[in-house]
What does this fold into?
Amino acid sequence: MQAIGQIEKAITWRVGVDVIRVISHYYQTPMRAIIKHTGINNNWFTLYIVRGTEPEVFTLNRYQQLYPHIAKDQLQQKLNDLTEQGFLSVDPLDAYRLTKTGRKAIERTMQMAHREMGKIRALPYQEMQYLADLLHRIVINSIQFNLPIEKHMMKISRWTDVGEFAPMTTRIEQYLTDLKRYRHDAKIASWQQHYIEGEVWETFTMICEEKADTTTALDDLLQAHGHERITLAHALQSLEQRGWITKSDLPNQYHITELGHIVYDEATHMTDQYFYAGWLCLSEKELQDLHYLLLQLHDTLQQAAA
It folds into this structure.
């Protein structure tokens, strides 16, 4: 029975992710205009993270903690660029803070997104309010749930919450984004017990999910995350030594082993255990209502945007 419930929640969550994507169509153009005007361009999300970390200072180590699969040099370059542009300041201890310009830029960007979301009229008000309240309960329960997992990205996500009196679409998008960030936290937590580097786990994941299985394809994906070619050789060697992958009969191709399947399935299960723990606050009927309302909202927004 538990397995069936988990599958149903997973289906509901996929609809939730689709709702985030559809809502983004309504604010992307004006938001991009603000991003271009301020000059933060492709680096706006780093400012978003630094702002969400406050009142703590932001460091390269914290950045690496959030994105362990990305090369430190690439993350450092993002911080360097924002500092050179005057959006961040750095102290002698290599701690980064928003400058007045940086704060204004990222807060204006989020305000523009909120303004556009506030214009959206989809389902009847009472249904939107009910949906927002259900999602809010999951978010709060997820934050309070006592699990051995750091909730860094979810806590960062919360800074854009403008409160329970915000327009309903804005609230719904906020809570869904909070949960999306929390799933990121859950995924990272699911493999920490293996004491493995982020880029090695990323290589393993790409092979398991059949996103890439040749050295050429794997190398391209790792280089996109700032890693040098030698990183792939280290990752493949490490995974082979653990017995998680094996070479194929074809040249430069790898497959997951039976042990690798067990390890990956365990991580997937742990991710779901962490992520859906916060959903336990809803009754079976409320979970059904959540699914139905998300589906209705998605279809209505999709039709309106067409």
